[in-house]
Amino acid sequence: MSIAIPGFDYQRVSVADEVTLNLAVGGTGSPIVLLHGFPQTHVMWRHVAGDLATDHTVICPDLRGYGASDKPDAREADTYSKRTMAADIVTLAGKLGHERFALAGHDRGALVAIRAGLDHPATITHLAVLDVLPTLDMWDILRGSSAAVAFHLYLMAQPPGLPEQMISASADAFFGYFLDLWAKDPHAIPADLRAEYLKASREAVPSIVADYRASAGIDIAHDQADRASGTRLPMPVTVVQQDWGAALGYDAAALWHTWAADLDHRTTSVGHFMAEEAPDEIVKALRSLLAR
């Protein structure tokens, strides 16, 4: 790993059989865990983490299957379920001495964070979700030609074999496409960091695909069970997302209210990589959440 979060200490913590997570830790005070998205690593939080570390203990892991964390083979349907990945994070925080903590996630990390909030409501004190919908709602909303915006979801949902082969054959082009398309400010991800993200993703194709494949299968089943039972997120929740509701024709705030009673729903004019494109905006939203 050539790029690190300045001023943070690095360590590896075992969270499950054959799974050790790479993480950066900095600051002192009440704990908050920050989970990265696709196709990134924990370093996407470098600006936000440095600010929060002035008065919080900030923990930034690479998710299982990503970055410098372990990448177990997807031998079981739940190896990369968000339930399993959320359990990783709860175990990680516990081993660092935090039985309760705030949690923020972006993109794939946000899906893990949502599942952690649903499965571990007594552990997650505050929850922030950046630029995703819950898995069940995401699939419901992607209809017709508008679903083309998420072609990668459909590609990686296919049975093992072809997706991994196709992506591995053009890994830098594939992952670089999203880094370029989804950033409104191309300067937010400088060339050296872009190269780092591409290298990390190139070396993790099977596990990244397995993560996405789980969201077309077992993750849906878990969301359906929660919806059927009326399970909701009981902690204060902040959602920051691009105006996907207007783009895809649904009421985003109303959708989120079905999952969270104590909700602050915000839209942003910046691109998908908002923690890198507008870190001050994200810090403000997180500090507002933590004060609730």
Topology:
Layout: E1 9-16, E2 19-26, E3 30-35, H1 46-52, E4 56-61, H2 82-95, E5 101-106, H3 108-119, E6 124-130, H4 135-141, H5 151-156, H6 162-169, H7 171-181, H8 191-202, H9 205-214, H10 218-229, E7 237-241, H11 244-248, H12 252-257, E8 263-267, H13 274-277, H14 279-290
Parallel strand pairs: 3-4, 3-5, 5-6, 6-7, 7-8
Antiparallel strand pairs: 1-2, 2-4
Helix pairs in contact: 1-14, 2-3, 7-8
What is the chain-wise order of helices and strands? EEEHEHEHEHHHHHHHEHHEHH
Main beta sheet: strand number and arrangement?
8 strands, mixed
Using the alpha-carbon principal axes, give the shape: globular
- Specify the structural class: alpha/beta
Please bin the fraction of helical residues: 40-55%
What is the alpha-carbon Rg in Å? 17 Å
Distance between the termini: 36 Å
How much β-strand is present in the residues? 15-25%
